């Protein structure tokens, strides 16, 4: 276990290149084992969740090799319908994509019920409903989902707009004979990325990015090379961190369109945001920022994954802002940590009321999940003094070289073992 030591206040300045999207790579890696021949994937982020997803498909017989910086080659020829070990599956939510993949590839399978960030109840009823509509017989016994099916295309209406359920049904349907229609599906860019990948392998997926996806099952899928889209949540994390610290940063390798809801809110706050073809620059050094209200919604709404970062920003703006979390029930764990640093925030049900303009002061805080962890580290950059952020393993699940990248933007952030005490931190510039 390690912790981050963060000296504030800091001002982020410079340039940063955004990595490939975690939440695209997480379904695309298991989708690769649906192919009959090897797959090359580029722009894969070197984060813990991805390493875990790779271990999971390796445990089933896939051979995976890193071939240079951020590319991997997946040889699916040795894949077998073995149950992935609970020790791996419990570490990430996205292990549940094995449900759709195993049904498509073998017509059967057993997958332990997945783990992942604790954001309140995270049911998988829509996954089960969708896969059952395609003909799967699914039972849960002793924490394991057991499935058997002769799949066939069908119509599925999702009662809840779910990224994971949409993806699982797409994965199962791509090799299921006949037409599958998913209505009220998720429209996130990661869904479009998966559809593009499945089509690059020879799949017939249409409509991704709208609320109706149509999939005509094909007999087989072939190897291909594919590059993952840039991570819009990593992009937003740095954009909001720049705003909170009052800096100026150019973000490269981004898809600006994916950032529309974040750009809109940052402009409302008073940040100067300039958009290029594949770049975004954010500057917040010239005038005081104003509080805003923010509601999280499925894409193209403001993302829940950037709600904790927005909370940190609103502690520093003028006035009172209200954040309403509409996606997950228990995604305000970072608030307790921010309050320990002096933030004035009241949580009432699904809303957090944040009185801005209150200085934060350093103290030991804890990352309770991935995005809350990033928010805690950025709060440390904003606060006066030296903040210790424990629970860094959560941050490592989704951010590649987080502290090194913040350092490259001028921040004083370093990592030490959890047990190590900080007796003295070098003075700035020492
Ligand atoms: C994905 O989670 C992302 N994870 C999450 O990112 C993200 O926060 C979330 O989508 C929303 O955008 C991955 O892509 C691996 P959902 P997922 O199914 O698929 C309810 C991060 O930090 N629901 O869209 O699990 C559910 O409880 C992570 O990178 C059901 O009721 O989210 C929630 O309220 C955290 N029944 C809502 O739908 C179901 O069967 C949306 O969940 C499924 C979901």
- What gyration radius follows from the Cα positions, in whole Å? 22 Å
Overall geometry: globular
Structural class: alpha+beta
Helix percentage range: 25-40%
Number of strands: 23
Question: DSSP helix count?
Answer: 14
Classify the beta-strand content into a percent band.
15-25%
Low-confidence stretches: none
**How many structurally independent domains?**
2
How far is it from the N-terminal to the C-terminal residue, by CA? 28 Å
Bound molecules: ligand EPZ
CATH architecture of the largest domain: Alpha-beta prism
Give a short account of the largest sheet.
4 strands, mixed
Mean of the pLDDT scores?
94
The first-level CATH class of the largest domain is given as: Alpha Beta
**Adjacency order of strands in the biggest sheet:** 21-22-1-23
The CATH superfamily label of the largest domain reads: Enolpyruvate transferase domain
The name CATH uses for the topology of the largest domain is UDP-n-acetylglucosamine1-carboxyvinyl-transferase, Chain
């Amino acid at each position: 276990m390690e912790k981050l030591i963060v000296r504030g206040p800091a001002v982020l300045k410079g340039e940063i290149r955004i990595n490939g999207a975690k939440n695209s790579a997480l379904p695309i890696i298991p989708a690769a084992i649906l192919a009959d021949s090897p797959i090359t994937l580029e722009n894969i982020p070197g984060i813990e969740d991805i390493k875990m997803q790779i271990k999971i498909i390796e445990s089933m017989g896939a051979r995976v090799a890193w071939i240079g910086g951020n590319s991997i080659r997946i040889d699916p020829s040795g894949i077998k319908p073995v149950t992935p070990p609970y020790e791996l599956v419990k570490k990430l939510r996205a292990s549940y994509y094995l449900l759709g993949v195993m049904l498509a590839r073998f017509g059967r399978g057993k997958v332990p019920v997945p783990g992942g960030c604790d954001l309140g109840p995270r049911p998988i009823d829509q996954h089960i409903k969708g896969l059952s509509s395609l003909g799967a017989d699914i039972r849960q016994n002793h924490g394991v989902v057991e499935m058997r099916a002769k799949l066939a295309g069908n119509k599925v209406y999702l009662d809840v707009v779910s990224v994971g359920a949409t993806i699982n049904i797409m994965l199962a349907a791509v090799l299921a004979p006949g037409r599958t229609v998913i209505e009220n599906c998720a429209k996130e860019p990661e869904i479009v990325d998966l559809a593009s990948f499945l089509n690059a392998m020879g799949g017939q997926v249409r409509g991704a990015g709208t609320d109706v996806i149509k999939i005509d099952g094909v007999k087989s899928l072939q190897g291909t090379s594919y590059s993952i889209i840039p991570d819009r949540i990593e992009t937003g994390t740095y954009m909001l961190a720049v705003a909170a610290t009052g800096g100026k940063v150019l973000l490269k390798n981004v898809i600006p369109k994916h950032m529309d809801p974040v750009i809109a809110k940052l402009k409302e706050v008073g940040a100067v945001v300039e958009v290029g073809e594949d770049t975004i620059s954010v500057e917040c050094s010239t005038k005081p920022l104003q509080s805003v209200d923010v509601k999280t919604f499925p894409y193209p709404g403001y993302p829940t994954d950037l709600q904790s970062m927005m909370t940190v920003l609103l502690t520093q703006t003028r006035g009172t802002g209200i954040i309403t979390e509409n996606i997950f029930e228990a995604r305000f764990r970072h608030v307790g940590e921010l309050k320990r640093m002096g933030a004035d925030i009241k949580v009432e049900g699904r809303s957090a009321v944040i009185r801005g303009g209150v200085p934060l002061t350093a103290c030991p805080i804890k990352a309770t999940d991935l995005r809350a962890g990033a928010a805690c580290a950025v709060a440390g950059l904003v606060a006066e003094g030296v903040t210790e952020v424990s629970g860094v393993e959560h941050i490592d699940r989704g951010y590649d070289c987080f502290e090194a990248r913040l350092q490259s933007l001028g921040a004083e952030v370093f990592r030490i073992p959890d047990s190590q005490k900080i007796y003295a931190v070098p003075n700035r510039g020492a």
